[in-house]
């Protein structure tokens, strides 16, 4: 298996936004992991530079509830983070449990 490349500047900006949004909620990595059905280590890895898969990103945005503008920025940054990489489909996914879906 080839090594995962370093994230580009868009990926770095994205994971910085994700950490800042979580801290503004405010919830801990452990609380975020529990809400998302993953582990604290997975949240830590994302905040340290592992670009989340799209469904992970959407779940994190749903949990952190940023403004529509910030959410849109995060989605664009995600698209630009790994434009030609198979990294998008690798790795263990968080089990996604949408808070909005469960509140409906």
Written account of the structure:
Residues 87-93 and 98-104 have low confidence and may be disordered. The longest helix is centred in the first third of the chain and has 16 residues, at 9-24. This protein is mostly helical and 104 residues long. The chain has helices at 9-24, 29-36, 40-47, 54-64, 68-81, 99-103. It has one domain (9-86): Orthogonal Bundle (434 Repressor (Amino-terminal Domain)). It is 60% helix and 0% strand.
Describe the SSE topology.
Elements: H1 9-24, H2 29-36, H3 40-47, H4 54-64, H5 68-81, H6 99-103
Helix pairs in contact: 1-5, 2-3, 4-5
Distinctive features:
single chain; mainly alpha; 434 Repressor (Amino-terminal Domain); disordered C terminus; 104 residues; globular
Please summarize what this structure is.
This protein is mainly alpha-helical and 104 residues long. The chain is 60% helix and 0% strand.
Using the coordinates shown, work out and report the CATH topology. Answer: 434 Repressor (Amino-terminal Domain)
CATH class: Mainly Alpha
Count of spatially separate domains: 1
Give the termini separation.
42 Å
Proportion of residues in helical segments: 55-70%
Mean pLDDT: 84
Instruction: Please identify which CATH superfamily we are dealing with.
Output: lambda repressor-like DNA-binding domains
Number of strands: 0
SSE series:
HHHHHH
């Amino acid at each position: 298996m080839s090594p995962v490349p370093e994230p580009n500047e868009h990926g770095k900006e994205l994971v910085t936004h994700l950490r800042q949004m979580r801290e503004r909620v405010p919830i801990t990595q452990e609380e975020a992991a529990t809400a998302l059905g993953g582990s604290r280590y997975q949240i830590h890895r994302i905040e340290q530079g592992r670009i989340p898969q799209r469904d992970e990103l959407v779940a994190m945005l749903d949990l952190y509830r940023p403004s529509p503008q910030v959410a849109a920025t995060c989605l664009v940054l995600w698209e630009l983070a790994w434009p030609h990489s198979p990294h998008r489909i690798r790795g263990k996914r968080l089990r996604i449990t949408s808070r909005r879906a469960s509140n409906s």
